[in-house]
Design goal:
It is globular and about 30 Å long. The protein has one domain: STAS domain (Transcription Regulator spoIIAA). It has helices spanning 51-63, 80-96, 106-115, 127-136, and strands at 3-4, 19-23, 27-33, 37-46, 67-78, 99-103. The chain has a six-stranded mixed sheet with strand order 1-2-3-4-5-6, sandwiched between helices. The chain is α/β, with parallel strands linked by helices. Residues 39-134 form the STAS domain. This is STAS domain-containing protein.
Length: 145
């Protein structure tokens, strides 16, 4: 696994079925590609400096996946700009007909209580639950490790 800045050359396609990572000043982002979808995990903080690149990357994933899981369980902070990023990813997934699931951390849950009182983001409690939902939907499933 390599760690790099988010660039066009760092963007892989699902066909690679690879794991990639990139680092910002406050977070590490990892993507695990499966046969028909991806898990994008964030560890650390999503703030004004990295929310845009995170959203850009996740939106690009949505364009070439049947399903996308945003694993935010390890986030210790997410600002309102991070919530805006999540909304933009959700909109792209809807437009691309990509099934989106978000695994929140306590920090994400706190922001969502304020910014998303109608609970529009599709939350799941764990990666196992997200992958089970993908399997139930009849979409092909490949274990993500």
């Amino acid at each position: 696994m390599t760690t790099s800045r988010i660039t066009d050359t760092a963007f892989a396609t699902p066909a690679t079925e690879a794991t990639q990572a990139w680092r910002s000043h406050t977070a590490i982002f990892t993507i695990h590609w499966g046969r028909s979808g991806a898990v994008v995990a964030a560890d650390g903080e999503i703030d004004a400096a990295n929310a845009g690149p995170f959203a850009d990357y996740a939106r690009r994933c949505a364009d070439c996946c049947e399903w996308l899981v945003l694993d935010l369980a390890e986030l210790t902070f997410i600002g309102t700009v991070g919530f805006t990023a999540l909304q933009s990813v959700s909109a792209r997934c809807a437009a691309a007909q990509t099934q989106l699931m978000v695994i929140p951390s306590p920090a994400v849950t706190s922001v969502l209580r304020i910014c998303d009182p109608q609970s529009r983001l599709p939350l799941v409690s764990s990666l196992a639950d997200a992958l089970a939902d993908v399997q139930k939907s009849g979409r092909p499933l490949r274990a993500v490790t």
